[in-house]
Each structure stands twice: as C-alpha cells, then as structure tokens.
Prior knowledge:
Residues 1-44 are annotated as: Disordered. This protein has 141 residues and is mostly helical. The chain contains four helices and two strands, in the order ββαααα.
Amino acid sequence: MKVTGPSGATSSQGARATRSAGGFSLPASGGASGPASAAATSSASSVAGVSALMALQGVEDATERRRRAIRRGGGLLDRLDELKLALLNGQDGAPALERLARSLREERPDDRDPGLKGVLDQIDLRAAVEMAKAETARARA
C-alpha cells in the first residue's frame, strides 16, 4: 500500500477500493443513499469544523492573558512617566492625565501569578493616586 497524500492510500495490487467524500464509508441502511448521504455528512462536518475553529480562536490561554496584563502595566508606567515629565517641565499635565485615565480604564486581564498581580496592583494604585491628586488640585482651583 502506498500513501500518496490527502487523496488517501492506493493499493499496489490493482484492486480499487470505493471512496467516499470523507475518506471512509458507512453502510447505507434505510437512509439517504450514495452521494446524497456523503454530501449531507460532509456539509455537517465542515460546519462543525468551522465552529470548532472559531471557538478555539475565542479561547484565551494563560500566556496571552499574562502578555496583555504586562502590556497594560507597561502602558500605565509610560503614562505616569509622561505625566512626570510634563510636570517637571512646567507644562500643563492635562493631556498626560487624560491618557493616564484612559489607560487606567482599560480592562485588566486576570493573572494567576501572585508576583505579577502584586506589581500590577501597585501600578494601578500609583495611577489612581495621581488621578486623585489631579482631581484635588482641580477642585482647589
């Protein structure tokens, strides 16, 4: 027997096996026969295959959640640096505060690593403190 690829196996003895659309055949017993049965089976299996692929794409693994959490934390640190530089240069920090607030409102991915969770909690707290300080200064003015 020789395997030639997705078309299936070929017998070297000259006897040809009957083929069906799915690569195997089921005995016909009282249902649709021949090509109609094969078409119904292949159409149902292709829909199930597409559904399974779409479901797998929606599943987020732990590595992707960790990457997103780290990316969010890094973004918050960048916004805090922008605010710090704006204030040190004597500029109005309102645009930097707006970007910080927008970054802080982003959904935080849940990560099971307690060390990463602790660092991200500290970053979120620092950003919230800066936002509260700005709100207090705005209320005084």
